[in-house]
Write a structure and sequence with these properties.
By secondary structure, the protein is α/β, with parallel strands linked by helices. The mean pLDDT is 96. The strands form 6 sheets. A 4-stranded mixed beta sheet has the order 3-2-1-18. A 3-stranded mixed beta sheet has the order 4-5-6, with helices on both faces.
């Protein structure tokens, strides 16, 4: 039987999946703002690749109106709107076959209810797309991992070892399931996610991302007062000391810029690391601050040849995420041969 592997996010895409903002109690007073931000992200990605927006039944017309003709809208039952975490993780083999791994989903350790529709959405999406389903009983969100497509996966202990996800599984068992389902051979465990990332318990997509084989982009706040100043340096030390699945030392590209902005009743952090890599582009969350341009330049240096686009994402950050959190790439099927 052919072996499947999860491709890197910079590999060719068939398109991008997104889900329309749904959980009104999460968004509160920023619901209208976040719908416009989701639509802006969808339009930005649609300039590079096809986007399919999933709206709950009865909300498709609103999504179509806001997103415009360049975005395809379908209706399926939803609880929430974070497809990085609830949509399938797609895998490929060398024979031209594609499948989707359907991990279990429990709303980041039961933080929101209900979540049964989101636990089922992967299977519905795979059926809609005509893609084979590979089931896993392990709870895993896509934002908790980053892969290089060549056997290496990076995650955080803060998230994957949290007792609200898989309390019956040891670290070794979790690692074995990642290897079995995603085709990786080495897992690099970083100690920390973001201290303020209480919603996801420290997803890796706020602190680190593979940008190319052997190259990692990391958040490294340059302000000693930042709550993650020491924590991100501890993460960086692990990456400096390690190697990838092919034995390479990792090239590390630091993003020292951070963005704290005021929204509604308080200050929120927009994570520049929470970006989406599209065909020929990178769509990055920004806060409308002076340091946005410097962060975009650093990210552009990590993705030569791609157009880097900033999209305002303050309301999305208020909900606990960024551009990466609300998107899920569908890799293009490989050519058999």
């Amino acid at each position: 039987m052919a072996e499947f592997r999860m491709p890197a996010e910079w590999s060719a895409h068939q398109g991008c999946l997104m889900a329309w903002p749904t959980r009104e109690e999460l968004w509160g007073s920023v619901l209208a703002d976040v719908k416009e931000e989701y639509a802006e992200v969808a339009r930005a990605i649609a300039a590079f690749e096809p986007v399919t927006m999933v709206a709950p039944p009865g909300h498709g017309e609103e999504a179509r109106t806001r997103c415009g003709d360049g975005v395809t809208v379908i209706e399926l039952p939803l609880d929430d709107s974070w497809f990085r975490d609830s949509a399938p993780l797609f895998v490929l083999d060398d024979d031209g076959n594609r499948a989707g791994v359907d991990f279990r989903f429990n709303a980041w350790g039961g933080k929101h209810h209900p979540f049964d529709s989101d636990d089922r959405i992967s299977a519905l999406l795979l059926e809609h797309l005509g893609v084979d389903r590979i089931a896993s009983d392990m709870i895993l969100e896509g934002g908790a991992i980053t892969v290089d497509g060549e056997g290496t996966l990076i995650t955080t202990e803060q998230c994957l070892l949290h007792p609200n996800r898989n309390p019956g599984m040891s670290r070794d068992e979790i690692e074995a399931e990642l290897k079995a389902r995603l085709g990786v051979t080495k897992v690099i465990w970083l100690p920390y996610g973001g201290l303020l990332d209480t919603e996801t318990d420290g997803h890796v997509d706020g602190v680190c991302a593979f940008a190319a084989p052997g190259t990692v982009v990391v958040s490294l706040p340059d302000d000693p007062r930042h709550p993650d100043y020491a924590r991100m340096r501890a993460n960086r030390a692990v990456l400096e000391a390690g190697t990838d699945a092919r034995g390479r030392r990792l090239e590390i590209i630091d993003v020292p810029q951070t963005a704290f902005a005021d929204l509604t009743d308080g200050e929120i952090e927009v994570s520049y690391l929470n970006y989406y890599v599209a065909n020929g582009g990178v769509v990055v969350p920004v806060a409308g601050l002076q340091q946005d341009e410097d962060a975009l330049a650093v990210i552009a240096s990590a993705y030569p040849g791609r157009k880097v686009v900033g999209v305002r994402a303050l309301a999305i950050a208020f909900g606990g995420g960024g551009v990466h959190c609300i998107t899920q790439q569908i890799p293009a099927a490989p050519t058999a041969g």
